């Protein structure tokens, strides 16, 4: 099957899931949006759930790419925190439909079929973050903590604003809180003696 048709079906799936949600979405609606035949759909994907899983991995790859791009060129501790938080906020706002899919629409049961691929993608992100973070921890520029705790302190507070924005509960652009989120993350992640030098 041509890659173009597969990409068209993924884009159509994203649009339909964003408009009506996963449960209400139909293969017929996705096919109509992509201008694809029944045969073309089922040649590319065995089911709506399979398309949803493939789309999840594609969106996750885009998000992880945006985060890792923020670490090039390699920043110091404060710059890295600043860039990673801004990269997260920018991606959510500028890729709102994808962000809604990743953080609001996707379902854990889809990940049964894509769990290994998801784990591999998450591992690549974690490795990229650790390549930047580990030397800074070793030098005492970042506080020592587990990678999971680091991410929760870095992105967790921003996610609260992003989820409210994505769900429509709050129309305020979450990037308007970037400076405060960065200042809070710096206090949580840098040793006190480094914060006072900022």
UniProtKB/TrEMBL annotation:
| InterPro entries the UniProt entry points to | DNA-bd_HTH_TetR-type_CS, Homeodomain-like_sf, HTH-type_TetR-like_transc_reg, HTH_TetR, Tet_transcr_reg_TetR-rel_C_sf
The residue ranges of the HTH tetR-type domain are 3-63
Q: Which UniProt keywords apply?
A: DNA-binding
Q: Does the keyword DNA-binding apply?
A: yes
* MF-aspect GO terms: DNA-binding transcription factor activity; transcription cis-regulatory region binding
Which sequence positions fall in the DNA-binding region? 26-45
What protein is this chain from?
A: Transcriptional regulator
Taking the record's annotation, the residue ranges forming a coiled coil are none
